[in-house]
Amino acid sequence: MIKQLHISNYALIDRLDIEFADGLTIITGETGAGKSIILGALSLILGERADLKAIRDADSKTIVEATFDIAGYGLEPFFKEYDIDWDEHECIVRRELSPSGRSRAFVNDTPVALAALRELVTRLLDIHSQHNNMLLSNPQFQLSILDSIAGNADLLGNYHKAYAEYREAEQRLAETVTAMERLKQNEDYIRFQLDQLQAMQLQPDEDQQLEALQARLSNITSLKEALWSVENELDGEENGVLAHLTSVVQRLDEAERCLTEISGMSDRVRSSLIDLKDIAQDVGNIMDTLNDDPSELARVDERLSSIYSLMRKHNAQNVNQLIDIQHDYERQLGEIDHNDEMLEQLKSQVEETFKASTAIAADLSANRRQAATKFVKELLSLALPLGMKNLAFDVQLTPVKLSRSGADHVEFMMAFNKNQRLMPVKETASGGEISRVMLCIKTIIARHMQLPSIIFDEVDTGVSGDVANMIGEMMADIARAIQVIAITHLPQVAANGDHHLRVYKTDNERETLTHVEQLSDQEHVMEIARMLSGKDLNQAAIENAKSLIKHKTQ
């Protein structure tokens, strides 16, 4: 429910702070006092389009801020989705308009898009007037009425889950069929490419190994010359390093007998001598393996040429990427070869999820038919005292293809006059008649579900007497379940209020301003008396007002 409303710099409002309570709050005031201005400000926090002409002072920004009690509305998922600070009891929404035309929206001081603001506030506040009754002709709204009466919330949750699984299965099947058709069209191309790759019998890192072998075979002569030179320098018959080191070892051995300072040096040189002998031997062995083999070099060159050609063709950087491409072709052909089996599995999933969705949809339909019968009876009984004695009403439920809302198309059919055939809501009634029908509907569904706070904007226009009394009593009945705010010109309606706000204007030398005051019990009586008598307030009107209020409390 809405607890507080702050409006500043909007139309005739300089600054206005209004507190609301639960139950039925009545708002009255002279025509033009500013009641519609307050509704216009509320429309801003409902995400409606901003009219910059409503900015009162062109040098300041306009602010509309509302505080809501959100306990019991199940809104935590919304706050998590939009990463907004969560308080299970209260939230504050704000809309700001700058003179430059910029509009900003906030929830708990977190900036949000208008769509998010609208999504939140429409779950908390419903403004209902003679001019927004097209909602009643909306099939989804009509279904929601039946579902609320039928208590289908849990069943709908199960259906939405089952239907989502069915649609996902259908989508997977459609995507797979499309992919298979595309693969089938490319099958010859894929097989040709795969045959080329498989014929190469590529090995991981083969290109690197072949390039190393190619470098070796291409440089046999220079490599052998280099190794021969190394071997000769180490172990040549003349001036070889090994011969010189052998002599060094002998001389050090002789000197160590007399010079303790060089003790151990001969062993160190001897160790180096052993390593160098091993190196010389290894070099010689390697040199023996280096044979000039033009045919092997030609084979390596040809293999590398074929690999490079494939790499260019497939835009691959190395052999390993070519192997990955080969595996992908193998996978695609595997899908083609086994597509019938895969498609049968997916078709089976579609069929299973369709059956599950259809079964729950059938339960929904049965509940809706029962609820429709109950709804028709309740609506007609409530409409009769509201001056609609000739109202005929029926709910037509037609089976349709599965959708997110089930397998039903609903149409509310009405006739307001005798011998008039039943027609869809949008083709029948006047604004006043539809307003009274909607009031009956809200009365019914308020008994079954947690509705947003409702603002009734002069839906009682064009009625009087006993009908006005009934409208007031019905609003009071709804207010037992949810917060109701009613803007009215009828004393019979106002008398049913638990709280009373009066809107009025004042003039000063520069401007006209709109104000709102909370009326005391005595002021409540006097305001209703004024509504009864007009400007000439008299004791009879006061007593009449007290009588209306007393009737309400009985």
What does this structure look like?
The chain has 554 residues and is an alpha/beta fold. 54% of the residues lie in helices and 18% in strands. The protein has helices at 35-45, 76-81, 114-121, 139-150, 153-185, 187-200, 206-218, 220-235, 241-256, 265-289, 294-313, 319-337, 339-383, 431-445, 465-479, 491-494, 521-533, 539-553, and strands at 2-10, 13-19, 24-29, 62-69, 90-97, 103-107, 110-112, 125-129, 392-403, 406-415, 423-424, 453-457, 484-487, 499-507, 512-518. The strands form 3 sheets. A 6-stranded antiparallel beta sheet has the order 2-1-4-5-6-7, with helices on one face. Strand 14 and strand 15 form a beta hairpin. Helix 4 (139-150) crosses helix 13 and helix 5 (153-185) packs antiparallel against helix 13 (339-383). The chain is elongated and about 145 Å long. It starts with a strand and ends with a helix. The model has no long low-confidence stretch (mean pLDDT 87).
Structural class: alpha/beta
Helical segment count: 18
Radius of gyration: 45 Å
| Spatial separation of the terminal alpha carbons | 26 Å
Residue ranges: pLDDT <50 for 5 or more in a row? none
Helix content bin: 40-55%
Instruction: Please provide the count of β strands.
Output: 15
- Give a quick account of the main beta sheet: strands, pairing sense, barrel closure: 6 strands, antiparallel
Q: What is the 3D shape?
A: elongated
Mean pLDDT: 87
The neighbouring-strand order within the major sheet is 2-1-4-5-6-7
**What percentage of the residues does DSSP assign to strands (E)?**
15-25%
